[in-house]
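G., before I forget:
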Amino acid sequence: MGDKAGSLTTNMMHEDLIRPLILTGRRFYLVVAVLGAIVLWGLAAWGYQVRTGMGVAGINSPVFWGVYIATYIFFIGISNAGTLISAMLRLSHAGWRHPVTRCAEAITVFALMVGGMFPLIHLGRVWKFYWLIPYPNERGLWPNFHSPLVWDFMAINTYLLGSFVYLYLPMLPDLALIRDRVAGWRRRFYGLLALGWSGTPVEWHRLEKAISILAVVIIPVAVSMHSVVAWDFSVALKPMWHSTIFAPYFVVGALFSGIAILMVAMVILRRVFHLEAYLEPIHFNNLGLLLLTFCFLWLYFTFAEYLVTWYGHLPDEMAAFRFKVEGPLAPFFWGMVLMNFVIPVPILAMRKTRTVTGCLVASLSILVGMWLERYLIVVGTLSRPRLEFAWGHYAPTWVEISILMGTVAYFILLYVLFSKIFPIISIWEFKQGRRLRAQKPAGDVPVMANEPFPGVM
Amino acid sequence: MAERILGVFETSADALRAVRGLVGAGIPRDGVIIGSTEPILDPEFLAPEDRKTRMSLWAIAGAILGCAIGYSLTATAAQLMGLAPGGQPIVSLWAFAIVIFELTALGAIGGTVITFFRETGLPQRRSAILDAQVARTFADAGFIVGAAVDRSEQVVVVDRVLREVGAKDVKYQR
Amino acid sequence: MAKWGMVIDLDRCTGCEACVIACHAENNLPIVGEEESAKGRQHNWIRIERYWEGEYPHIRARFIPVLCQQCDHAPCEPVCPVYATYHNPEGLNAQVYNRCIGTRFCANNCPYTVRVFNWFDHQWERPLDEQLNPDVSIRTRGMMEKCTFCVQRIRRARHQAEDEGRDIRDGEVQPACVQSCPTEAMVFGDLDDPDSRASQRARSRRAFRLLEELGTEPSVIYLKEDEWVEP
């Protein structure tokens, strides 16, 4: 890389990356209106559910959890992408990371915000949700720290806060840059957000330091976040939930779907904001290879999980196994294998198809496949409890579908608004990367001197 | 109020020469104003007293505090409730380890962020070194080096030094 | 302090479901109707599971009443984020309706699937609302509930015994299901008292506990059917 990026002047770059924040086309309002309408519809469906009771959803006994929890895992999974990927790329000094970090981190924050709503949406008495918060009260009641749901609460909030800081601090220089280039209310708005950043040596030095500390802290938090989600299931004595590999299995699945959503976001941003010079084929190539690795990792974990169940042949476990692989959920299961492996692997394996469009197709396929995996985990096990008499089945209702659509639209809407208000590509990091490539001996940037060649993570 | 003379530079090497020039011309090191739109991590840009950061220490301190809070919160809350759910001990470290870990991480993040703001003096209402007019030039050029002076003979010295080391432009700001 | 338990003799169970009806009347369980039942939302704290064995004409129905097993190591308890379900000193696995926020995690983690969720608010048509039991609170939508071993009856017996300055006598407490069983298949009592009827029956060689291998330590003991020969 570097040819296209190298030819960009600073001025062109500022124009390219700040222009979208100032000029607004009709298409933007249209997209916001459509997404907003879907969000409102989902909100109405949720209001109806709160008012009437959880019975308006398709969940029942024994399938007490359904689409809400499946989508919860899905969103928490894609939230792992951003901050984790960005932190790993920063720590490993991957030379191609500069244009990718910000749009990845934004995914994390918004996916967490949306994913974190699902435990509330699925709560029977959502108006009492604050009982999950450990705060002193006159009745002397505390939440139960033995419960994975309280772990969830703590993990989501820690990760959300950490990711927010990790997104916001590195944005300060860019906010200051915009502040200094615009006028009127925008100047006041970005000035407020920039917190008075002036770009002094101390500020830069401490920012670099803070980013590297945060990257080290945030990686285990991200891993713990998705492990806790896995333990929601695997601490339960349920067939095909009570599994020790669930935590790493979930983390791998999370990264898998996370890279996929990052690529989808990058393709769209590239088209909409004409960022061809910033998000280059090399980025898609590298992320595509990473995604390919995860296709195999995913298959490996899935096979390990199902093989052991099948070989052990315990009756209770086999009931859930058969329900998923041969029974009513078989189309979901084989659809998942198709979407997560059969379709993306050839596309990503061949250099000829590992193009921007190829990556988009593979990523979309994986996103659907990973949602199916989450659905299978939740519904497959719950439909087959240990006592045969209690066996059941589940199908989502229009309320669940509406809320699912509403939250997906909400996620996209948040992302659209973010990319409209803030530079979606980190301007200063992009400059830094360009300069490092331009002057190889990079004398004035000792921290980054061991920048390896691009393409290796 | 003193007058500020700010030179605009395009590369960090030029900016560094300007810093050396100003110090050589008798401007005290902490009176030199430096700003950049790109990371300037060369330690020479930093005033000697700014080179050391205690951020890692405070991150660790925050982590220890978070860990202690995590343990006392979970153990105290569980003991106050006094219930052994499902036969687990009232204080179950296996189960509480996760909450303790999250609060440890939260403490480390908090320590880092607080130290960041303390050591940089942020947040402020506006940029400490730029007014709107200079800001625009600066944003496009990249680097700014200058000094605040009260005496008019110093103004000439600073202006000359900045131009000598290759300032693209020199701005005056009150 | 007593350790309450129940012994159910499967040899005596005819599957008549009188216990189910009695439980409905005693504990203010709503009637949810055919449609909801078909969705898997039957509102029963006790159910008669029926399994068919063999092929016609050598076919046989087996019944097993399943209610909350009041496990000593109840898997439902640790997963509740707000301690809404906990273990009381009498060995009862209690559910605090007011504290429940409706995560349904407990129901998922119950190996016996005996927990019942309130999918909606319930109404009782007149005059059925007149027969609601004043000793048992009405649950609202979004709460989990389950068999309590008729804790209100245990409390009443305890208060009476305390007033009279004595211990609770064996047989003095009878949950509604036990009371209504026409074949006396169910016996309720203090398992810590070796002379109680329940303890005596529990010592039978036929005794087993449901899914005992999970280590949940249930307080409900079943007596398996002896083999019988078809005439």
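Chain B touches chain C at residues 81, 83-88, 95 (CB under 8 Å). The mean pLDDT of chain B is 86.

More on Monday.
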